[in-house]
């Protein structure tokens, strides 16, 4: 039994903090095996067509160049019977680098120079000339290609319609569109691949959200047993979804390493970070109806998403509109439009950030049309159970989020009339939105080993993409086994460790955390069983339920405490080990599990220049048990910052003539910087949940972002009286 | 088209974290690549290679610079301090300690650059208002969005009058 929480729920500094602030945490590109050579990738400059000729002659003449790989000389073995899919590949045929001369999108990798140094490889890459047979047009803009949408039969089903939404009175009709966004983690994608010709095996350092993903991808391409592919990824410099799928540098590094029988390092440039998956652009159409009291009578939500020409990537966008509010008449429709772009990829709060942007803006428009306070409108239509599936929620403290946020923010002082709150030349606006994210749990396994030296090692092949996995897992293990944090070591990011789901979907604490808790409980039982043999005078006939595990010692009630170390010594055992597989509990399916939030935003808009600032944001979160308030708050302030970027800054601009991203760099693709972020207040609302998983924690990676963009757009309306229905809201749209 | 082959290497001397280091290197190698790929000092990060993200920030004669925008050969005779040279053995620099205490990072990739920029700001004895702090830190992008906590670090360092490196 656990009497008090010593570690769970306590603000704890990151256990890997010291490595990160001293620069000793090693990311994928920072491994330098002997004889390492460097690859530099060349990308296509057209979106459709094919390669007529790649001239590599000059590049090959440069001293230090080992090889130039193109579709013409790539080993045939990676083309025959090769499986390029990864665990999260959507339906379709995954992109196969260097497979043939076809160009599927602008920025497609088409060659790689391998040289003794990075500088030589980069220089030689510039000497390669490519002749194309350029396709006549490239389909880039979603609005112009709606007629090309797939028929519904091809797509996953949306939540069911209910009632007759079309018949009910319409009060608001609005459509929203948002720009393509690019993940741009600070660490570029990087792989160091080391082929062992004698063993026929790979050792790979890869940037990925789950080592199992890279392992499956490489074993499929090279027809290797999975145990011949070891993938390591102990530190990951951010991913935000971009590392849910292996990226092309992994293929290039592995292929070159095996072909040349040399260790190869391939790192993407910042420009290349715009040459694969992105958050898709999306056009959303809403029709809402409400009665005089503001009760929703009708919700119609139709969305058009985009995908590539080779895979059907879909997001859950419209289901949120069926879920969130009490309404008898709902019609949901999701269409998917194939364009000449790379397959989109999940990006922080995929689908949710998009769908809730539309829904929460439309709700704000409804509030204005109905003359009801937007917060009040949400309370009037509050859903006590999952409106799509009719199930009860495992827990839902959203009402408390609304009231706590309103109190902190001073919502009651808001002026409902637009352009009515002004300080000199600055128009002040206040906006609100709801956030939501599904609290998922996946199967995960973990191993715990306690040694006679008193050290506990817990291991699972999960990842820490900046989320704090190392720290929270250490806390959970320390809590359950009653050990100080420094006696606990958590290992991750190695494909030889017990299997774990990829880190994504905000499910790592829920899934891996549950496995860590259960494996430590199992280990505790082993210690107790052993203690019955080694110290029968104390423990024989006793029940584990009556035992205390604290400070590395076990005791019964007020009896003598015995150190685990002593138990192992007396038993003459070097170590004790336990392994578990954790999975969602039976009966969990009877409930809907979601985290919720209320976001309130103040914006300042320059009345003449349209400059927009966000001086403060309050986000009240109901995310179940908070394991580490310190890293949890960081997750939420990160999410808010992402919402600000989505609302005001981020826009992948594509040249419609050739499908090329025109702003593929961090100077022109704007992300939030220090000056954009001011006061961010995070409130964690108490929420008890013994259904969602053994920890009661729901996960926080995504929910903090959802709703932020809508709250900002709504605040801008409140400030200016202008309803901008296109993201990002840049100053030109306000002039 | 005429093109040049591999540029000749030459021996240069750099004052790096208090030591004099000799290295044979081509003039086209940036200080960033020299640090990461030749000296294996990988605490300095490459985020964009274009001076747009600040991940590669190091201190040269006490001033924070983007090491990706500078060639290694140009830095001879100057005092270069990287993240590896900021702590004294086991003792972290106060800025490093404050980054841990305030959870001013998540993935950790931009962190060493943010820390060097903070130290550079302290060396300049600037950052007297919230606007100036944010303005001077603007060159360091943190995609995880730890800005609010990084700001708290800089504010605290200013309040406590912590010394940078000089």
Summarize the structure.
The complex is a heterodimer of chains A (735) and B (166). Chain A is α+β, with helices and mostly antiparallel strands and 735 residues long.
List the chains of the largest interface with their residue counts.
A-B, 69 and 64 residues
Low-confidence stretches of chain B: none
Spatial gap, N to C terminus of chain B: 50 Å
Shape of chain A: globular
The portion of residues assigned to helices of chain A is 10-25%
Features:
heterodimer; A: 735 residues; alpha+beta; seven-stranded mixed sheet; five-stranded mixed sheet; 24% strand; B: 166 residues; 5 helices; 5 strands; 31% helix; globular
Structure report:
- The complex is a heterodimer of chains A (about 725) and B (about 170).
- Chain A is an alpha+beta fold and about 725 residues long.
- Chain A has 15 helices and 29 strands.
- Chain A is globular.
- With about 170 residues, chain B is of the alpha+beta class.
- The interface between A and B is large, with 69 and 64 residues.
Task: Write the SSE topology.
The complex is a heterodimer of chains A (735) and B (166).
Chain A: H1 17-22, E1 37-43, E2 49-55, H2 57-61, E3 65-70, E4 102-103, E5 109-115, H3 118-125, E6 129-134, E7 172-178, E8 190-196, E9 201-206, H4 211-222, E10 229-232, H5 248-260, E11 264-267, E12 282-290, E13 296-307, H6 319-323, E14 330-338, H7 352-370, H8 374-380, H9 398-409, E15 422-423, E16 426-438, E17 444-451, E18 456-459, H10 469-481, E19 488-491, H11 508-534, H12 536-539, E20 547-550, E21 553-556, E22 562-563, H13 564-570, E23 575-582, E24 594-606, E25 612-622, H14 629-648, E26 654-655, E27 660-661, E28 679-684, H15 708-720, E29 726-727
Parallel strand pairs in A: 1-11, 7-29, 9-10, 13-14, 18-19, 25-28
Antiparallel strand pairs in A: 1-5, 2-4, 2-6, 3-5, 7-12, 8-9, 8-11, 12-13, 15-16, 16-24, 17-18, 17-23, 20-21, 21-22, 24-25, 26-27
Helix pairs in contact in A: 4-5, 7-15, 10-11, 11-13, 14-15
Chain B: E1 10-16, E2 19-25, H1 31-38, E3 57-60, E4 63-66, E5 79-81, H2 94-101, H3 111-124, H4 130-137, H5 147-159
Parallel strand pairs in B: 1-5
Antiparallel strand pairs in B: 1-2, 3-4, 3-5
């Amino acid at each position: 039994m656990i009497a008090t929480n010593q570690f769970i729920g306590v603000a704890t500094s990151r256990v890997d903090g010291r490595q990160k602030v001293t620069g000793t945490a090693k990311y994928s590109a920072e491994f330098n095996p002997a004889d390492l050579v460097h690859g530099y990738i060349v990308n296509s400059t057209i979106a459709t067509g094919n390669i007529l000729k790649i001239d590599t002659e000059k590049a090959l003449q440069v001293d230090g160049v080992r090889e130039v790989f193109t579709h013409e000389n790539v080993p045939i073995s990676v083309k025959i019977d090769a499986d390029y899919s990864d665990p999260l590949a959507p339906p379709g045929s995954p992109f196969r680098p260097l497979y043939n001369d076809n160009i599927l999108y602008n920025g497609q990798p088409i060659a790689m120079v391998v040289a003794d140094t990075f500088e030589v490889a980069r220089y030689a890459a510039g000497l390669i000339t490519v002749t194309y047979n350029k396709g006549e047009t490239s389909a880039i803009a979603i609005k112009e290609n709606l007629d090309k949408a797939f028929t519904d039969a091809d797509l996953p089903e949306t939540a069911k319609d209910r009632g007759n939404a079309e018949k009910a009175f319409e009060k608001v009709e609005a459509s929203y569109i948002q720009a393509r966004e690019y993940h741009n983690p600070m660490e570029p994608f990087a792989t160091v691949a080391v082929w062992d010709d004698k063993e026929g095996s790979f050792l790979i350092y890869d940037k990925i959200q789950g080592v199992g993903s890279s392992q499956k991808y490489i074993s499929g391409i090279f027809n290797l047993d999975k145990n011949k592919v070891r993938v390591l990824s102990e530190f990951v410099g951010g991913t935000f979804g971009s590392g849910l799928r292996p990226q092309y540098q992994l293929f290039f590094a592995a292929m070159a390493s095996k072909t040349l029988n040399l260790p190869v390092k391939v790192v993407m440039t910042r420009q290349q970070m715009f040459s694969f998956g992105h958050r898709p652009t999306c056009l959303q159409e809403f029709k809402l109806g409400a009665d005089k009291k503001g009760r929703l009578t009708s919700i119609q939500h139709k969305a058009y998403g985009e995908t590539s020409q080779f895979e059907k990537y879909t997001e859950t966008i419209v289901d949120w509109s069926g879920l969130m509010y009490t309404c008898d008449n709902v019609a949901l429709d999701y269409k998917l439009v194939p364009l000449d772009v790379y397959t989109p990829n999940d990006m922080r709060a995929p689908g949710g950030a998009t769908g809730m942007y539309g829904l929460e803006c439309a709700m704000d428009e409804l509030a204005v049309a109905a003359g009801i306070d937007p917060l009040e409108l949400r309370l009037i239509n509050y859903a006590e159970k999952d409106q799509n599936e009719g199930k009860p929620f495992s827990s839902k403290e959203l009402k408390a989020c609304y009231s706590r946020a309103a109190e902190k923010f001073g919502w009651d002082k808001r002026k409902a009339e637009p352009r009515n709150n002004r300080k000199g030349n600055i128009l002040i606006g206040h906006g609100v939105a709801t956030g939501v994210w599904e609290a998922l749990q996946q199967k995960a396994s973990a191993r715990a080993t306690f040694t006679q030296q008193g050290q506990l090692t817990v291991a699972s092949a999960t990842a820490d993409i900046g989320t704090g996995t190392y720290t929270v897992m250490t806390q959970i293990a320390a809590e359950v086994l009653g050990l100080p944090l420094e006696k606990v070591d958590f290992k991750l990011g190695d494909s030889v460790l017990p299997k774990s789901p990829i880190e994504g979907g905000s499910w790592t604490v829920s899934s891996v955390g549950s496995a860590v808790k259960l494996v430590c409980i199992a280990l505790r039982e082993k210690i107790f069983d052993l203690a019955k043999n080694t110290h029968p005078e104390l423990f024989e006939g006793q029940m584990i339920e009556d035992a205390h595990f604290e400070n590395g010692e076990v005791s019964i009630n007020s009896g003598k405490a015995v150190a685990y170390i002593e138990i192992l010594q007396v038993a003459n055992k070097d170590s004790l080990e336990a392994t578990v597989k954790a999975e969602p509990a039976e009966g969990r399916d009877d409930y809907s599990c979601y985290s919720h939030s209320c976001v309130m935003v103040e914006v300042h808009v320059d009345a003449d220049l349209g400059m927009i600032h966000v001086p403060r944001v309050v986000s009240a979160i109901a995310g179940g048990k908070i394991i580490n308030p310190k890293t949890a708050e960081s997750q939420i302030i990160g999410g808010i910052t992402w919402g600000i970027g989505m609302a005001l800054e981020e826009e992948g601009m594509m040249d419609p003539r050739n499908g090329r991203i025109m702003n593929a760099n961090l100077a022109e693709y704007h992300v939030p910087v220090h000056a954009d972020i001011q006061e961010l207040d995070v409130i964690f609302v108490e929420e008890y949940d013994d259904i969602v998983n053994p920890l009661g924690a729901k996960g926080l990676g995504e929910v903090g972002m959802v709703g932020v963009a809508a709250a900002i757009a709504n605040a801008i309306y409140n400030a200016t009286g202008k309803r901008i229905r296109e993201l990002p809201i840049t100053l030109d749209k306000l002039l | 088209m005429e093109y040049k082959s591999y540029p000749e290497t030459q021996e240069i001397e750099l004052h790096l974290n208090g030591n004099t280091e000799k290295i044979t290197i081509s003039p086209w190698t940036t200080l960033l690549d020299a640090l990461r790929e030749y000296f294996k000092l990988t605490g300095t990060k490459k985020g964009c290679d274009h001076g747009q993200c600040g991940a590669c920030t190091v201190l040269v004669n006490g001033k924070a610079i983007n090491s990706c925008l500078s060639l290694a050969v140009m830095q001879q005779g100057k005092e270069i301090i990287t993240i590896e040279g900021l702590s004294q053995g086991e003792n972290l620099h106060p800025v490093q300690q404050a980054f841990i205490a305030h959870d001013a990072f998540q993935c950790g990739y931009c962190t060493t650059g943010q820390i060097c920029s903070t130290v550079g700001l302290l060396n300049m004895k600037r950052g007297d208002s919230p606007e100036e702090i944010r303005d001077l830190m603007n060159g360091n992008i943190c995609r995880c969005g730890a800005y609010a906590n990084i700001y708290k670090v800089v504010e605290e360092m200013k309040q406590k009058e912590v010394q940078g490196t000089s």
